[in-house]
Design brief:
Layout: E1 3-8, H1 22-25, H2 27-36, E2 39-42, H3 48-51, H4 61-72, E3 76-83, H5 90-93, H6 99-116, E4 123-128, H7 143-148, H8 151-163, E5 168-173, H9 181-195, E6 202-205, E7 208-210, H10 219-227, E8 232-243, H11 252-271, E9 275-280, H12 290-293, E10 297-298, H13 311-319
Parallel strand pairs: 1-2, 1-9, 2-3, 3-4, 4-5, 5-6, 6-8, 7-8, 8-9
Antiparallel strand pairs: 8-10
Helix pairs in contact: 6-8, 11-13
The structure holds (3S,4R)-3-hydroxy-2-oxopiperidin-4-yl beta-D-xylopyranoside.
The site of (3S,4R)-3-hydroxy-2-oxopiperidin-4-yl beta-D-xylopyranoside has 10 residues, from loops.
InterPro entries: GH (IPR017853), GH10 (IPR044846), GH10_dom (IPR001000)
Keywords: Carbohydrate metabolism, Glycosidase, Hydrolase, Polysaccharide degradation, Signal, Xylan degradation
Pfam family, one: Glyco_hydro_10
């Protein structure tokens, strides 16, 4: 029952990641994708700006293809994501909508997207990155919370449950690997949801790690406290970036440290009851988002650009 997943590369912020859609165009990529994983997540293709590019138009093309590919290859799918402050289309962010309109826009979106894949999605990241580092709700940059208040988060979970009663509904965020203000805020909100019978099933840590910082040694203890509430947990976007030396080639010591971070993340998840989904955010440096978003850093995935395997790949295989 354990799922090893990867994000399926595709698009990204268009100007930043100029390559075409690897999922449709790169056959060797697809071969590895089919062979090495039993779970897949859409890196971008189910986000608002991709799947709902105009108010009255959805574009399901690549998302449908990913779900079909997954079925054909015996893989489950994680849905990502429904309520987020980022990668929303301009028509939404710049639109001039009343509160009632915005509410029905979100409800319709969730019913439409979750409903379309009803029965095909194992876990949905319903709410993504709703808290700041200090554990406050994002009341300025998250359009939904800003315009409609925090109650909209519970509504999003309720609408998702109605649209697909079998999908497990998750909160997902970065920087919540350890016990800290942000993960504390999730724990408190989830307790409140449970008390109010709002349907929430899981809490997941993205785990975009960097060898610049120490490994979050309390990852397991943190996941445990969510598990103790009866929740599922998951690692959803693991990668381990590093500062690239002059010339761009990581040292053996860096690769060993990276392998250790990957492995400790996997071990923590394996040790926690209900942590049954472990996803890396892309498997090859060829399409990793890291060099685009973190200047001077890279080599964050388990395979080189030619799909040859790094120490991190081997260490994960040995642990499994
Ligand atoms: C990233 C993608 O990897 C990029 O291709 C895109 O340009 C920006 O978003 N947290 C998330 C993911 O929840 O959706 C983000 O994915 C990485 C951080």
């Amino acid at each position: 029952g354990f799922h090893i997943g990867t994000a399926v590369a595709g698009g990204g912020h268009h100007e930043d990641q100029p390559y075409p859609d690897p999922f449709t165009s790169d056959q060797p990529y697809r071969t590895v994708l089919a062979a090495e994983f039993n779970s897949v997540s859409a890196e971008n293709q189910m986000k608002w700006e991709y799947i709902h590019p105009e108010r009255d138009r959805y574009d399901f093309g690549t998302a449908d293809a990913i779900v079909k590919f997954a079925k054909r290859n015996g893989q489950v799918v994680r849905g990502h994501t429904l309520l987020w402050h980022s990668q929303n289309p301009e028509w939404l962010e710049q639109g001039d909508f009343s509160k009632e309109e915005l509410r029905s826009i979100l409800r319709d979106h969730i019913k439409t997207v979750v409903g379309r894949y009803r029965g095909d999605i194992q876990q949905w990241d319903v709410a993504n990155e709703i808290f700041t580092e200090t554990g406050e709700l994002r009341t300025t940059d998250n359009i939904w919370i800003r315009e409609l208040g925090p109650g909209i988060i519970a509504d999003a979970f309720r609408w998702a449950r109605q649209a697909d009663p079998k999908a497990k509904l998750f909160f997902n965020d970065y920087g919540v690997e350890g016990v800290n203000a942000k993960s504390d805020a999730y724990l408190a909100l989830i307790k409140q949801f449970k008390a109010q019978r709002v349907p929430v099933d899981g809490f997941s840590a993205q785990a975009h790690l960097s060898t610049r910082y120490g490994f979050p040694g309390d990852l397991e203890a943190n996941l445990e406290r969510f598990s103790a509430l009866g929740l599922e947990t998951a690692i959803t976007e693991l990668d381990v970036r590093m500062d690239l030396p002059e010339g761009g080639v990581p040292t053996e010591a860096q690769l060993a440290q990276q392998a250790d971070y990957y492995n400790r993340t996997l071990v923590a998840c394996l040790n926690v009851d209900g942590c049954d989904s472990f996803t890396i955010w892309g498997f090859t440096d060829k399409y990793s988002w890291v060099p685009v978003f973190f200047e001077g850093q890279g080599a964050a995935t388990v395979m080189w650009e030619d799909f040859s395997r790094k120490p991190a790949y081997h260490v994960l295989r040995d642990t499994l």
